[in-house]
Description:
Blueprint: H1 3-13, E1 37-41, E2 44-47, E3 52-55, H2 70-81, H3 91-103, E4 109-113, H4 116-131, E5 135-139, E6 152-153, E7 163-164, H5 171-174, E8 177-180, H6 185-195, E9 199-204, H7 220-231, E10 234-238, H8 250-254, E11 261-265, E12 275-279, H9 281-284, H10 303-316, H11 321-342, E13 348-352, E14 355-359, H12 369-373, H13 377-389, E15 392-393, E16 402-403, H14 410-426
Parallel strand pairs: 3-15, 5-8, 5-9, 9-10, 10-11
Antiparallel strand pairs: 1-2, 2-3, 4-12, 6-7, 11-12, 13-14, 14-16
Bound molecules: ligand KE4.
Residues 22, 24, 60, 115-117, 120, 143-145, 205, 209-210, 238, 240-241, 265, 275, 400 line the site of ligand KE4.
Amino acid sequence: xxxxxxxxxxxxxxxxxxxxxxxxxxxxxxxxxxxxxxxxxxxxxxxxxxxxxxxxxxxxxxxxxxxxxxxxxxxxxxxxxxxxxxxxxxxxxxxxxxxxxxxxxxxxxxxxxxxxxxxxxxxxxxxxxxxxxxxxxxxxxxxxxxxxxxxxxxxxxxxxxxxxxxxxxxxxxxxxxxxxxxxxxxxxxxxxxxxxxxxxxxxxxxxxxxxxxxxxxxxxxxxxxxxxxxxxxxxxxxxxxxxxxxxxxxxxxxxxxxxxxxxxxxxxxxxxxxxxxxxxxxxxxxxxxxxxxxxxxxxxxxxxxxxxxxxxxxxxxxxxxxxxxxxxxxxxxxxxxxxxxxxxxxxxxxxxxxxxxxxxxxxxxxxxxxxxxxxxxxxxxxxxxxxxxxxxxxxxxxxxxxxxxxxxxxxxxxxxxxxxxxxxxxx
Length: 427
Ligand code: KE4
């Protein structure tokens, strides 16, 4: 039972829009109220009614070493003893920057922020300032935080100016963003043929994690790299989700495609507020106070977040960390498909190291937002609720990815598959 979650949500509804501080947490169209958690421990979350769940949200990615990892908690506690925030340079922010730069191929310098949104919107401003151009290309189904230039959907014609994807986004600004179809390599070529010299940057999730989990098709990222290089535009990889998740060097290392700028977040803060824009020195130095592109933040490089991020990156840097994560993510994904098939349920589970996407569909490959929208929403809703009632906490939206941590072991995978078997038999 979740009586206390329900009453807490009722109270929250009177003081916060939708009772939440981020829309996806509201369980909209899924359940009459979200679950309130009080504690995380390794692969588990515990709710206010004392129920335990195997967690595949992982705070949307940061908890890659499991919740409340002792080494992360101890690093934050030590930093805490010295104070929370000084609004001044600290050694630890340089140490984290050096650590990130060592791993991420595109990173020569970086600027810290307090969220992925801030990092993405600052990267857009940087690209526009560096190239002295205004057009941005993004892809439908990719999410780069809620900066105005990135809350834009495709206009009426494929290559026309974007239209706001949220109230409050000025039309004139939305017109400067062109939204294409993810994995549509030919569409990207056509866009550059038509708009080329006006394009400041292409921003893309190299593995899309905001419409389930959708890997790039062969040549998609490579073509974006060629097009941006040959037209004087910048290529920005939004690795807020994939950075340090799919490997130490992120998706850019996995696919051997090096962008000009990389947006980071989540894991590099280990659960505390963080974001970063990394890239070539020549570009990053366009940020104030060196260059003309203004960018700032009271808590940017906050020592607590730096301590948490550094401890987390040290954990993911351990030998075979990502190899083991990949093995478990593959096992879970493949077994889910086998169990679903046995029960006559059409299921496709896309996965890359540490992340997966569940699609109720007979389509063999889910490659873009339209494919995802064509999946069975009713089945997802039923599956999500049966899994929750059986102690498995999945992402509360079919447009979100699931996350496996290093704390998820044989027992947790088996328990998850048993619950899934039960759920498939009830769909
Ligand atoms: P934040 O501003 O939420 O730190 O980061 C925005 C962001 C940027 N880029 C990518 C690829 C992201 O996935 C995100 C945020 N991810 C969502 C989950 N899909 C966060 C969950 C939420 O919005 O509550």
